[in-house]
Amino acid sequence: AQSVTQLGSHVSVSEGALVLLRCNYSSSVPPYLFWYVQYPNQGLQLLLKYTSAATLVKGINGFEAEFKKSETSFHLTKPSAHMSDAAEYFCAVSDAGNTPLVFGKGTRLSVIA
Amino acid sequence: ETGVTQSPTHLIKTRGQQVTLRCSSQSGHNTVSWYQQALGQGPQFIFQYYREEENGRGNFPPRFSGLQFPNYSSELNVNALELDDSALYLCASSPGLSGTDTQYFGPGTRLTVL
Question: Residue A40: pLDDT band by 50, 70, 90 thresholds?
Answer without folding.
Answer: confident
